[in-house]
Write a structure and sequence with these properties.
- With 377 residues, this protein is of the alpha/beta class.
- It has 2 domains: 41-276, Aspartate Aminotransferase, domain 2 (3-Layer(aba) Sandwich), CATH 3.40.640; 278-376, Aspartate Aminotransferase, domain 1 (Alpha-Beta Complex).
- It is 45% helix and 15% strand.
- It contains 14 helices and 12 strands.
- The protein has helices spanning 3-14, 41-52, 63-67, 70-83, 94-104, 120-128, 141-153, 177-186, 240-249, 251-254, 261-276, 278-298, 316-328, 358-376; strands at 27-28, 87-91, 111-115, 132-136, 160-165, 190-194, 219-224, 234-238, 308-314, 331-332, 334-336, 346-351.
- It has a 7-stranded mixed beta sheet with strand order 2-8-7-6-5-3-4, sandwiched between helices. Strands 9-12-11 form a 3-stranded antiparallel beta sheet, with helices on one face.
- Strand 3, helix 6 and strand 4 form a beta-alpha-beta unit.
- The chain is globular and about 60 Å long.
Protein backbone atom coordinates (compact mmCIF):
# COMPACT_ATOMS: atom_id res chain seq x y z
CA UNK A 1 0.00 0.00 0.00
CA UNK A 2 1.29 3.48 -0.84
CA UNK A 3 2.20 6.09 1.75
CA UNK A 4 -0.69 8.20 0.44
CA UNK A 5 -3.14 5.46 1.34
CA UNK A 6 -1.63 5.10 4.82
CA UNK A 7 -1.83 8.84 5.42
CA UNK A 8 -5.43 8.98 4.20
CA UNK A 9 -6.45 6.16 6.53
CA UNK A 10 -4.62 7.76 9.45
CA UNK A 11 -6.44 11.04 8.77
CA UNK A 12 -9.79 9.25 8.76
CA UNK A 13 -8.93 7.56 12.04
CA UNK A 14 -7.95 10.84 13.72
CA UNK A 15 -11.26 12.38 12.67
CA UNK A 16 -13.29 9.43 13.94
CA UNK A 17 -14.34 8.47 10.39
CA UNK A 18 -12.40 5.26 9.75
CA UNK A 19 -14.76 2.54 8.57
CA UNK A 20 -14.40 -1.16 9.37
CA UNK A 21 -16.46 -4.26 8.70
CA UNK A 22 -18.45 -5.69 11.60
CA UNK A 23 -20.43 -8.90 11.78
CA UNK A 24 -24.04 -8.75 12.92
CA UNK A 25 -24.22 -8.97 16.71
CA UNK A 26 -26.88 -7.82 19.13
CA UNK A 27 -30.53 -6.90 18.65
CA UNK A 28 -31.15 -5.67 15.11
CA UNK A 29 -31.70 -1.93 15.04
CA UNK A 30 -29.57 -1.27 11.98
CA UNK A 31 -30.61 -3.50 9.06
CA UNK A 32 -33.01 -2.64 6.25
CA UNK A 33 -34.83 -5.98 6.64
CA UNK A 34 -38.00 -4.07 7.47
CA UNK A 35 -40.50 -6.92 6.99
CA UNK A 36 -38.25 -9.56 8.53
CA UNK A 37 -38.14 -11.56 5.30
CA UNK A 38 -34.38 -12.04 4.92
CA UNK A 39 -34.33 -15.07 7.24
CA UNK A 40 -37.96 -16.08 6.79
CA UNK A 41 -39.11 -19.62 6.14
CA UNK A 42 -41.26 -18.33 3.27
CA UNK A 43 -38.27 -17.20 1.20
CA UNK A 44 -36.24 -20.24 2.22
CA UNK A 45 -39.02 -22.55 1.02
CA UNK A 46 -39.23 -20.69 -2.29
CA UNK A 47 -35.49 -21.18 -2.80
CA UNK A 48 -35.68 -24.86 -1.81
CA UNK A 49 -38.50 -25.46 -4.29
CA UNK A 50 -36.58 -23.68 -7.04
CA UNK A 51 -33.48 -25.78 -6.43
CA UNK A 52 -35.61 -28.92 -6.49
CA UNK A 53 -36.94 -28.03 -9.94
CA UNK A 54 -33.45 -27.37 -11.27
CA UNK A 55 -33.05 -23.59 -11.05
CA UNK A 56 -29.28 -22.87 -11.00
CA UNK A 57 -27.44 -20.92 -8.33
CA UNK A 58 -25.49 -18.80 -10.84
CA UNK A 59 -26.52 -17.27 -14.13
CA UNK A 60 -23.24 -18.06 -15.87
CA UNK A 61 -22.99 -14.81 -17.79
CA UNK A 62 -24.55 -11.46 -18.53
CA UNK A 63 -28.22 -11.25 -19.48
CA UNK A 64 -27.15 -10.75 -23.11
CA UNK A 65 -24.73 -13.72 -23.08
CA UNK A 66 -26.71 -16.79 -21.98
CA UNK A 67 -27.27 -15.44 -18.46
CA UNK A 68 -30.92 -14.60 -19.16
CA UNK A 69 -32.97 -17.21 -17.26
CA UNK A 70 -36.74 -17.82 -17.30
CA UNK A 71 -36.77 -16.89 -13.59
CA UNK A 72 -35.50 -13.40 -14.46
CA UNK A 73 -38.20 -12.96 -17.08
CA UNK A 74 -40.92 -14.34 -14.81
CA UNK A 75 -39.90 -11.89 -12.09
CA UNK A 76 -39.89 -8.95 -14.49
CA UNK A 77 -43.35 -9.79 -15.80
CA UNK A 78 -44.72 -10.21 -12.28
CA UNK A 79 -43.00 -7.04 -11.01
CA UNK A 80 -44.39 -4.93 -13.84
CA UNK A 81 -47.88 -6.17 -13.01
CA UNK A 82 -47.37 -5.75 -9.25
CA UNK A 83 -46.03 -2.20 -9.41
CA UNK A 84 -48.28 -1.10 -12.27
CA UNK A 85 -45.63 -0.26 -14.84
CA UNK A 86 -45.37 -1.26 -18.48
CA UNK A 87 -42.13 -3.21 -18.00
CA UNK A 88 -39.51 -4.06 -15.38
CA UNK A 89 -35.79 -4.85 -15.63
CA UNK A 90 -33.93 -6.84 -12.95
CA UNK A 91 -30.45 -5.78 -11.85
CA UNK A 92 -28.00 -7.34 -9.40
CA UNK A 93 -28.35 -4.49 -6.91
CA UNK A 94 -29.78 -1.06 -6.25
CA UNK A 95 -26.46 0.75 -6.53
CA UNK A 96 -25.75 -0.58 -10.02
CA UNK A 97 -29.36 0.00 -11.11
CA UNK A 98 -29.37 3.62 -9.95
CA UNK A 99 -26.02 4.22 -11.59
CA UNK A 100 -27.30 2.68 -14.83
CA UNK A 101 -30.44 4.85 -14.92
CA UNK A 102 -28.66 8.17 -14.54
CA UNK A 103 -25.56 7.36 -16.58
CA UNK A 104 -27.56 5.96 -19.51
CA UNK A 105 -30.86 7.78 -19.94
CA UNK A 106 -30.14 11.54 -19.70
CA UNK A 107 -28.32 12.75 -22.83
CA UNK A 108 -25.85 15.49 -23.65
CA UNK A 109 -27.74 18.79 -23.47
CA UNK A 110 -30.17 17.51 -20.83
CA UNK A 111 -30.32 18.68 -17.22
CA UNK A 112 -30.61 16.48 -14.13
CA UNK A 113 -32.00 18.30 -11.09
CA UNK A 114 -31.47 16.12 -8.03
CA UNK A 115 -32.28 16.34 -4.35
CA UNK A 116 -29.14 17.25 -2.43
CA UNK A 117 -29.57 14.22 -0.12
CA UNK A 118 -30.01 11.63 -2.86
CA UNK A 119 -28.21 8.27 -2.72
CA UNK A 120 -24.49 8.04 -3.50
CA UNK A 121 -25.30 5.70 -6.38
CA UNK A 122 -27.22 8.51 -8.08
CA UNK A 123 -24.17 10.77 -7.77
CA UNK A 124 -22.01 8.11 -9.40
CA UNK A 125 -24.50 7.77 -12.24
CA UNK A 126 -24.59 11.52 -12.78
CA UNK A 127 -20.80 11.72 -12.85
CA UNK A 128 -20.86 9.22 -15.74
CA UNK A 129 -23.67 11.00 -17.54
CA UNK A 130 -23.16 13.44 -20.42
CA UNK A 131 -25.98 15.61 -19.03
CA UNK A 132 -25.46 18.58 -16.74
CA UNK A 133 -26.52 18.09 -13.13
CA UNK A 134 -27.64 20.56 -10.49
CA UNK A 135 -28.60 19.97 -6.83
CA UNK A 136 -31.81 21.29 -5.29
CA UNK A 137 -32.50 21.92 -1.62
CA UNK A 138 -33.77 18.84 0.15
CA UNK A 139 -37.48 18.22 -0.38
CA UNK A 140 -37.94 21.68 -1.90
CA UNK A 141 -40.17 21.32 -4.96
CA UNK A 142 -39.96 25.04 -5.71
CA UNK A 143 -36.17 24.82 -5.86
CA UNK A 144 -36.50 22.08 -8.49
CA UNK A 145 -38.90 24.19 -10.53
CA UNK A 146 -36.63 27.23 -10.25
CA UNK A 147 -33.59 25.23 -11.40
CA UNK A 148 -35.38 24.07 -14.54
CA UNK A 149 -36.71 27.56 -15.31
CA UNK A 150 -33.25 29.10 -14.87
CA UNK A 151 -31.74 26.45 -17.15
CA UNK A 152 -34.33 27.12 -19.85
CA UNK A 153 -33.81 30.89 -19.53
CA UNK A 154 -30.07 30.43 -19.99
CA UNK A 155 -30.59 28.50 -23.24
CA UNK A 156 -31.13 24.91 -22.10
CA UNK A 157 -32.93 23.05 -24.88
CA UNK A 158 -32.67 19.38 -23.88
CA UNK A 159 -34.92 17.41 -21.55
CA UNK A 160 -35.03 18.00 -17.80
CA UNK A 161 -34.73 15.02 -15.44
CA UNK A 162 -35.76 15.14 -11.79
CA UNK A 163 -34.08 12.59 -9.50
CA UNK A 164 -35.34 11.96 -5.96
CA UNK A 165 -35.79 9.31 -3.29
CA UNK A 166 -39.34 8.75 -2.13
CA UNK A 167 -38.16 8.01 1.44
CA UNK A 168 -34.70 9.26 2.36
CA UNK A 169 -32.32 6.66 3.66
CA UNK A 170 -30.63 8.68 6.41
CA UNK A 171 -33.45 11.00 7.50
CA UNK A 172 -36.52 8.82 7.03
CA UNK A 173 -38.56 11.68 5.59
CA UNK A 174 -40.76 11.62 2.49
CA UNK A 175 -40.34 13.53 -0.75
CA UNK A 176 -43.12 15.88 -1.97
CA UNK A 177 -43.87 13.46 -4.81
CA UNK A 178 -47.16 15.02 -5.92
CA UNK A 179 -45.79 18.55 -6.48
CA UNK A 180 -42.66 17.14 -8.13
CA UNK A 181 -44.79 15.07 -10.53
CA UNK A 182 -46.71 18.23 -11.45
CA UNK A 183 -43.43 20.06 -12.09
CA UNK A 184 -42.25 17.19 -14.29
CA UNK A 185 -45.49 17.34 -16.29
CA UNK A 186 -45.28 21.11 -16.67
CA UNK A 187 -41.69 21.05 -17.96
CA UNK A 188 -41.97 17.84 -20.03
CA UNK A 189 -39.43 16.36 -17.64
CA UNK A 190 -38.70 12.77 -16.67
CA UNK A 191 -39.16 11.93 -12.99
CA UNK A 192 -36.85 9.27 -11.53
CA UNK A 193 -38.03 8.00 -8.13
CA UNK A 194 -35.80 5.78 -6.01
CA UNK A 195 -38.23 3.79 -3.87
CA UNK A 196 -35.48 1.80 -2.12
CA UNK A 197 -36.75 2.35 1.43
CA UNK A 198 -40.46 2.61 0.62
CA UNK A 199 -40.89 -0.59 -1.40
CA UNK A 200 -42.70 -3.20 0.66
CA UNK A 201 -43.45 -0.72 3.44
CA UNK A 202 -45.65 2.03 1.97
CA UNK A 203 -48.35 2.25 -0.66
CA UNK A 204 -51.03 -0.25 -1.71
CA UNK A 205 -49.63 -3.77 -1.19
CA UNK A 206 -46.27 -2.16 -0.41
CA UNK A 207 -45.89 -0.78 -3.94
CA UNK A 208 -44.16 2.37 -2.69
CA UNK A 209 -44.93 6.04 -2.16
CA UNK A 210 -45.02 6.76 -5.91
CA UNK A 211 -47.43 3.91 -6.66
CA UNK A 212 -50.04 6.21 -8.23
CA UNK A 213 -47.47 7.45 -10.75
CA UNK A 214 -46.45 4.02 -12.03
CA UNK A 215 -47.20 3.47 -15.70
CA UNK A 216 -46.75 7.11 -16.74
CA UNK A 217 -44.53 7.70 -19.76
CA UNK A 218 -42.42 10.26 -17.88
CA UNK A 219 -41.80 8.21 -14.71
CA UNK A 220 -39.04 5.70 -13.92
CA UNK A 221 -39.00 4.00 -10.54
CA UNK A 222 -36.38 1.91 -8.78
CA UNK A 223 -37.42 -0.80 -6.32
CA UNK A 224 -34.58 -2.48 -4.49
CA UNK A 225 -35.01 -6.10 -3.46
CA UNK A 226 -32.49 -6.33 -0.62
CA UNK A 227 -34.33 -4.22 1.93
CA UNK A 228 -37.98 -4.88 2.82
CA UNK A 229 -38.18 -7.65 0.19
CA UNK A 230 -35.45 -9.56 2.02
CA UNK A 231 -33.57 -10.82 -1.05
CA UNK A 232 -31.09 -9.17 -3.44
CA UNK A 233 -31.16 -7.06 -6.58
CA UNK A 234 -33.24 -4.18 -7.89
CA UNK A 235 -36.10 -3.65 -10.31
CA UNK A 236 -36.32 -0.68 -12.66
CA UNK A 237 -39.96 -0.14 -13.63
CA UNK A 238 -40.38 1.99 -16.74
CA UNK A 239 -41.95 2.35 -20.19
CA UNK A 240 -40.79 -0.30 -22.68
CA UNK A 241 -38.67 2.16 -24.68
CA UNK A 242 -36.71 3.05 -21.53
CA UNK A 243 -36.16 -0.63 -20.71
CA UNK A 244 -35.00 -1.41 -24.23
CA UNK A 245 -32.65 1.59 -24.23
CA UNK A 246 -30.99 0.45 -20.97
CA UNK A 247 -30.58 -3.07 -22.37
CA UNK A 248 -28.85 -1.63 -25.45
CA UNK A 249 -26.87 1.25 -23.95
CA UNK A 250 -26.61 0.67 -20.21
CA UNK A 251 -23.04 -0.47 -19.60
CA UNK A 252 -23.84 -1.37 -15.99
CA UNK A 253 -26.46 -3.79 -17.34
CA UNK A 254 -24.75 -5.05 -20.50
CA UNK A 255 -21.42 -5.98 -18.93
CA UNK A 256 -22.56 -7.31 -15.55
CA UNK A 257 -23.08 -10.98 -14.79
CA UNK A 258 -26.81 -11.56 -14.37
CA UNK A 259 -28.21 -11.90 -10.85
CA UNK A 260 -28.69 -15.39 -9.45
CA UNK A 261 -31.89 -16.94 -10.80
CA UNK A 262 -32.55 -18.11 -7.23
CA UNK A 263 -32.66 -14.48 -6.11
CA UNK A 264 -35.26 -13.78 -8.80
CA UNK A 265 -37.29 -16.62 -7.33
CA UNK A 266 -36.95 -15.16 -3.84
CA UNK A 267 -38.06 -11.70 -4.98
CA UNK A 268 -41.16 -13.19 -6.62
CA UNK A 269 -41.99 -14.88 -3.33
CA UNK A 270 -41.48 -11.58 -1.46
CA UNK A 271 -43.81 -9.72 -3.82
CA UNK A 272 -46.43 -12.39 -3.23
CA UNK A 273 -46.06 -11.94 0.53
CA UNK A 274 -46.48 -8.16 0.15
CA UNK A 275 -49.68 -8.76 -1.78
CA UNK A 276 -51.16 -11.55 0.35
CA UNK A 277 -50.00 -10.69 3.88
CA UNK A 278 -50.81 -7.05 4.69
CA UNK A 279 -50.59 -7.91 8.39
CA UNK A 280 -46.79 -7.76 8.14
CA UNK A 281 -46.90 -4.12 7.06
CA UNK A 282 -49.50 -3.36 9.72
CA UNK A 283 -47.26 -4.83 12.43
CA UNK A 284 -44.32 -2.78 11.20
CA UNK A 285 -46.32 0.45 11.18
CA UNK A 286 -47.54 -0.29 14.71
CA UNK A 287 -43.93 -0.69 15.84
CA UNK A 288 -42.99 2.58 14.13
CA UNK A 289 -45.81 4.38 15.95
CA UNK A 290 -44.78 2.81 19.25
CA UNK A 291 -41.18 3.94 18.68
CA UNK A 292 -42.32 7.48 17.95
CA UNK A 293 -44.30 7.64 21.20
CA UNK A 294 -41.37 6.28 23.23
CA UNK A 295 -38.88 8.68 21.65
CA UNK A 296 -41.14 11.67 22.20
CA UNK A 297 -41.75 10.74 25.82
CA UNK A 298 -38.21 9.79 26.84
CA UNK A 299 -35.70 11.59 24.58
CA UNK A 300 -35.04 14.85 22.75
CA UNK A 301 -35.20 13.19 19.33
CA UNK A 302 -38.02 14.10 16.95
CA UNK A 303 -39.81 11.08 15.43
CA UNK A 304 -39.36 10.82 11.64
CA UNK A 305 -42.69 9.14 10.95
CA UNK A 306 -41.10 6.17 9.22
CA UNK A 307 -39.12 3.02 9.98
CA UNK A 308 -35.89 5.02 9.58
CA UNK A 309 -35.22 7.13 12.65
CA UNK A 310 -32.15 9.41 12.73
CA UNK A 311 -30.76 10.18 16.16
CA UNK A 312 -28.71 13.26 15.26
CA UNK A 313 -26.03 14.09 17.83
CA UNK A 314 -23.78 16.42 15.81
CA UNK A 315 -20.13 15.47 16.20
CA UNK A 316 -18.44 12.36 14.85
CA UNK A 317 -16.94 11.51 18.24
CA UNK A 318 -20.26 11.72 20.06
CA UNK A 319 -21.92 9.47 17.48
CA UNK A 320 -19.16 6.85 17.71
CA UNK A 321 -19.13 6.98 21.52
CA UNK A 322 -22.91 6.60 21.77
CA UNK A 323 -22.96 3.73 19.26
CA UNK A 324 -20.19 1.97 21.19
CA UNK A 325 -22.14 2.32 24.43
CA UNK A 326 -25.31 0.95 22.87
CA UNK A 327 -23.45 -1.99 21.32
CA UNK A 328 -22.01 -2.84 24.72
CA UNK A 329 -25.58 -3.02 26.01
CA UNK A 330 -26.54 -5.56 23.35
CA UNK A 331 -27.93 -3.49 20.48
CA UNK A 332 -26.71 -3.48 16.89
CA UNK A 333 -26.90 0.20 16.04
CA UNK A 334 -24.32 2.09 13.98
CA UNK A 335 -22.84 5.58 13.86
CA UNK A 336 -23.30 7.40 10.54
CA UNK A 337 -20.80 10.15 9.78
CA UNK A 338 -19.82 12.45 6.89
CA UNK A 339 -19.55 12.15 3.95
CA UNK A 340 -22.60 9.87 4.17
CA UNK A 341 -24.45 12.67 5.96
CA UNK A 342 -23.77 16.45 5.96
CA UNK A 343 -21.08 17.91 8.22
CA UNK A 344 -22.28 18.49 11.76
CA UNK A 345 -25.11 15.95 11.53
CA UNK A 346 -23.40 12.73 12.61
CA UNK A 347 -25.97 10.37 14.00
CA UNK A 348 -27.11 6.95 15.02
CA UNK A 349 -29.38 5.52 12.35
CA UNK A 350 -32.11 3.56 14.12
CA UNK A 351 -34.21 1.27 11.94
CA UNK A 352 -37.38 -0.50 13.02
CA UNK A 353 -37.97 -3.95 11.58
CA UNK A 354 -40.07 -7.00 12.36
CA UNK A 355 -36.92 -8.53 13.85
CA UNK A 356 -37.69 -6.68 17.11
CA UNK A 357 -40.71 -6.24 19.38
CA UNK A 358 -42.14 -3.47 21.56
CA UNK A 359 -40.32 -4.64 24.70
CA UNK A 360 -36.96 -4.50 22.93
CA UNK A 361 -37.73 -1.06 21.49
CA UNK A 362 -38.77 0.29 24.90
CA UNK A 363 -35.59 -1.10 26.48
CA UNK A 364 -33.44 0.38 23.71
CA UNK A 365 -34.92 3.84 24.19
CA UNK A 366 -34.54 3.65 27.97
CA UNK A 367 -30.88 2.68 27.53
CA UNK A 368 -30.42 5.36 24.86
CA UNK A 369 -31.73 8.06 27.20
CA UNK A 370 -29.42 6.81 29.96
CA UNK A 371 -26.40 6.70 27.63
CA UNK A 372 -27.09 10.24 26.44
CA UNK A 373 -27.26 11.44 30.04
CA UNK A 374 -23.96 9.72 30.82
CA UNK A 375 -22.24 11.23 27.80
CA UNK A 376 -23.54 14.69 28.74
CA UNK A 377 -22.28 14.37 32.32
Amino acid sequence: MSDNHERALDALSRRGRLRALETARGIDFTSNDYLGLAQSRELARAIEAAIARGVPVGAGGSRLLRGNHPEHEALEAEAAAFFGGETALYFGGGFIANTAILSTLPSRGDLIVYDELIHASAHDGMRLSKADAKPARHNDAQAVDDAIREWRASGGVGQPWIAIESLYSMDGDRAPIGPLAEIADHHDAMLVVDEAHATGVFGPDGRGLAAELEGRENVVTLHTCGKALGAMGALVVAPRTIRDFIINRGRAFIYATAPSPLMATAVRAALDICRSDPARRARLHNLVSFTARELAAKTRFVPSGSQIQPLIVGSDGTAVSLATTMKARGYDIRAIRPPTVPEGTSRLRLTITLNVDEAQIARLIDDLAAAEAENAA
